[in-house]
């Protein structure tokens, strides 16, 4: 009997710890920045569906996607404080902390490219395809140096 | 590219070790028989350009800062730092003095498929001729002629700065004896033309295995781990498994793989990164059919 209680208590403790761990993880910079990138990726996916013609052109979707990319790109470089180099399955490369200014400039370029495209608003499928080409070059240029698969 | 380089240069570890391993059974550089390069007919420049992009010559032989049209100037000069020293990639532009403008088709073909330089010396396998050895004489001829249409450059690359014993080209004979082969890397059940084309592109010009296949202590491929990925030898990050056994690529459709090679985006819209960026940019110049063929081959290799 007693041992069952102990086990139950231990399980409860573990669960508790698990939940607490998850709650705090959500605020960690590694997790926040991965969330921002997921949003960028998701938005690009929405644009790509239009560019490929699997979804019809829809101005509201285009606008929302570009805005999300722009906002995420601006918030992104703030999520690399000292101490967040490792952990939470980050695939951020150590080169970020060695060249922070260049890293920030690349994020800023993605933001300003998205803003410029927003300002002239792609009006059809072909316009969206062009936008993806431009933004896609920003993604790979940064990932080439600053992202490291582990 | 520095990472790429170390990765490809892993073969160089073998220079010393393999030399010893085979009892300094140093083999002479072996050229192809002369008739290998005979009767190839008029070159097809459009095909030569395809081989050029599939082979990714730009990644190593263009100036590191080159963009746009300048990517086609094969001036060399890129410094590839490795644990054994620094390689300075040579000029292969059509310049008669600084480049390979004076080379015959046979000289060029022997460098590409046998790793033999113009003075008959062994070339370092960091130039991925271990893969290019599979190129057909026709593709070599077309590539040779295409390279001649590119702008000449008078840049003279520095000599390599390698430490002893890595600076001894003669020891490369041992490595070649152990590992240089033009045999298929895997036996495939399928005789499908598309898969065969993919096999040629991946194992030959695309030299995908040079990064995606882990090496043994002597710098040769681990045969039972073809395209299985592994830690980056430089200790930073890892190279992904691209066989059907991969949790990631294994779950991608053929179209997903072809689309990644064309656009640089994964099915969940992650963007290509690391040393794969240059590879993707080069390979994206191939027609869709070729990218589909590569995808079909990647789906056919043994799962690891």
Please summarize what this structure is.
Chain B: It holds the Pfam family Cytochrom_C. The complex is a heterodimer of chains A (150) and B (304). Chain A has 150 residues and is an all-alpha fold.
What are the salient characteristics of this protein?
heterodimer; A: 150 residues; mainly alpha; Four Helix Bundle (Hemerythrin (Met), subunit A); elongated; disordered N terminus; B: 304 residues; Cytochrome Bc1 Complex, Chain D, domain 2; 3-stranded antiparallel β-sheet; two-stranded antiparallel ribbon; 13 helices; 5 strands; 37% helix; 5% strand; globular; Cyt_c_prime (chain A); signal (chain A); metal-binding (chain A)
Q: Please, could you describe this protein's structure?
A:
- The complex is a heterodimer of chains A (150) and B (304).
- Chain A is mainly α and 150 residues long.
- Chain A is built from six helices and no strands.
- Chain A is elongated and about 45 Å long.
- The N terminus of chain A is likely disordered.
- Chain B starts with a helix and ends with a helix.
- Chain B is globular and about 50 Å long.
- Helix content of chain B is 37%, strand content 5%.
- With 304 residues, chain B is mainly alpha-helical.
- Chains A and B meet through helix 2 and helix 6 of A and strand 5 and helix 12 of B.
- Chain A: It comes from Rhizobium oryzicola.
- Chain A: Keywords: Electron transport, Heme, Iron, Metal-binding, Signal, Transport.
- Chain A: This is Cytochrome c.
- Chain A: InterPro entries: Cyt_c/b562 (IPR010980), Cyt_c_II (IPR002321), Cyt_c_prime (IPR012127), Cyt_c_prime_subgr (IPR015984).
């Amino acid at each position: 009997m007693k041992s069952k209680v102990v086990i139950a208590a231990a399980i409860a403790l573990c669960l508790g710890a698990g939940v607490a761990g998850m709650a705090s993880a959500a605020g960690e910079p590694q997790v926040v920045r991965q969330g921002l990138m997921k949003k960028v990726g998701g938005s690009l996916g929405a644009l790509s569906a239009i560019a490929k013609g699997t979804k019809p052109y829809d101005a509201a979707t285009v606008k929302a996607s570009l805005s999300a990319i722009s906002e995420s790109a601006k918030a992104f470089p703030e999520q690399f404080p000292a101490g967040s180099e490792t952990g939470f399955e980050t695939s951020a490369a150590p080169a970020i902390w060695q060249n922070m200014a260049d890293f920030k400039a690349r994020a800023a370029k993605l933001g300003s490219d998205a803003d410029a495209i927003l300002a002239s608003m792609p009006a059809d499928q072909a316009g969206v395809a062009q936008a993806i080409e431009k933004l896609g070059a920003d993604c790979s240029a940064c990932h080439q140096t600053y992202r490291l698969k582990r | 590219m520095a990472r790429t380089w170390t990765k490809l240069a892993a073969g160089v570890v073998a220079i010393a070790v393999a030399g010893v391993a085979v009892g300094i059974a140093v083999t002479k550089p072996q050229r192809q028989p002369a008739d290998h390069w005979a009767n190839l007919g008029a070159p097809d420049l459009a095909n030569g350009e395809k081989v050029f992009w599939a082979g990714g010559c730009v990644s190593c032989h263009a100036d590191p800062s080159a963009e746009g049209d300048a990517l086609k100037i094969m001036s060399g000069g890129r410094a590839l730092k490795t644990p054994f020293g620094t390689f300075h990639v040579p000029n292969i532009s059509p310049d008669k003095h600084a480049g390979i403008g004076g080379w015959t088709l046979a000289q060029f073909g022997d460098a590409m498929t046998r790793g033999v330089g113009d003075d008959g010396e062994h070339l370092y396998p960091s130039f991925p001729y271990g893969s290019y050895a599979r190129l057909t004489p026709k593709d070599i001829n077309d590539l040779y002629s295409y390279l001649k249409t590119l702008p000449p450059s008078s840049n003279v690359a520095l000599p390599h700065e390698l430490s002893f014993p890595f600076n001894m080209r003669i020891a490369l004979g041992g490595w070649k004896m152990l590992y240089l082969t033009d045999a298929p890397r895997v036996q495939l059940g399928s005789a499908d033309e598309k898969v065969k084309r993919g096999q040629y592109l991946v194992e030959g010009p695309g030299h995908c295995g040079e990064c995606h296949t882990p090496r043994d202590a002597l710098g040769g491929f681990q045969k039972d781990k073809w395209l299985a990925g592994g830690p980056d030898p430089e200790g930073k990050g890892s190279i992904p498994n691209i066989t059907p056994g991969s949790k990631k690529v294994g779950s991608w459709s053929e179209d997903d793989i072809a689309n990644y090679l064309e656009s640089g985006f994964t099915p969940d819209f992650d963007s290509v990164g690391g040393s794969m960026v240059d590879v993707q940019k080069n390979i994206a110049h191939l027609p869709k059919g070729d990218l589909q063929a590569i995808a079909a081959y990647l789906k056919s290799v043994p799962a690891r």
